[in-house]
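Lab notes, practical 5.
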Amino acid sequence: MRFIFLLFISFLFVNAAVAQDKKAPTQEQLKELSRIQNEKYENQKKKEWDAYLVRVEADKLAKKQKKVADSIEKSKLTDNVKNDIDDFTKCSVQELPYFKVKNYITKLEELKSLDNYIKIHIYNKFRYPEFAIKHELQGRVMVYFIIDKEGNLQIKEAIGPKNGLILEEEAIRIIKSLPTAIPAKCDGKPINISYAIPIMFQMEE
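Output from the prediction step:
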């Protein structure tokens, strides 16, 4: 009787093990599943990249068309700014743009130079685009802009690495979000002044 009982218990264990083996995927099945998932991911990634390249080419074309369309306006603006910058070096009293910032502790207004303020601003506003991380886009973007006589910021252009449109867009977003500045002054007279700011997009290794 004991023998039959032990045989019955062994039979149950064997059946349970077989049933468990049927349910559990084998190493080969897991590898194949992983391969299929990777293949789907790579295909999706390629589709995203191809669509992005179309957008990059469309942006290049739009920039060329814009340059042709407003070349006269741009040349006038550039000449005005150039004159201001040339005159700036001849000023008896020079004042660079600055910002009025409220101190959250003292609640008092503080004056921050443009260089110091922009560094903090970029640090606080910086976001690495997920698409750029996914597709390993990195490099330096130079943003060229003007702070006009009213202290308003006007983006001229952003130049980044090859196919770096999404990085250029992010750099422009950061600089565009700057508040109105106290404009540069030449002998007490507000003037236009141009700047070039580098923003680095670098993925950690």
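Observations recorded by the TA: The longest strand covers residues 139-147. Helices lie at 2-23, 27-69, 71-88, 114-125, 130-134, 165-176.
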